[in-house]
Specification:
alpha+beta; three-stranded mixed beta sheet; 2 helices; globular
C-alpha cells in the first residue's frame, strides 16, 4: 500500500471491501460498472498509479478539480 500522507495523491479500494459492495449490489439486483475519483490540480486522465491498480472489467471516471471546482471529466477502460 502507501503511506497515509500519500492519500491525497493516491486512490485505491481494498479488494475485500469491493467484493462486499459487489455482493450487496447483486443482492439488490444491481451491478457495479465503474469507479470514479478526482485529480486535484491534475489532468482528468489516468495516472500511472491509476493504470497499475485498475481492474479490467470496470469503467473509470476521473474528474479534474481546480480551485475546488470540477473542470473536466473523462472516462477510461483498462486494455
Amino acid at each position: 500500500m502507501f503511506a497515509p500522507e500519500e492519500r491525497y495523491h493516491r486512490y485505491t479500494i481494498d479488494p475485500q471491501e469491493f467484493m462486499l459492495a459487489e455482493g450487496e449490489a447483486e443482492s439488490e439486483k444491481m451491478e457495479i460498472v465503474g469507479i470514479y475519483h478526482s485529480h486535484p490540480n491534475a489532468p482528468a486522465k489516468p495516472s500511472l498509479f491509476d493504470q497499475n491498480h485498475a481492474w479490467p472489467v470496470l469503467s473509470y471516471v476521473v474528474i479534474e478539480v481546480r480551485d475546488s471546482r470540477p473542470v473536466e471529466t473523462r472516462r477510461w477502460l483498462l486494455k
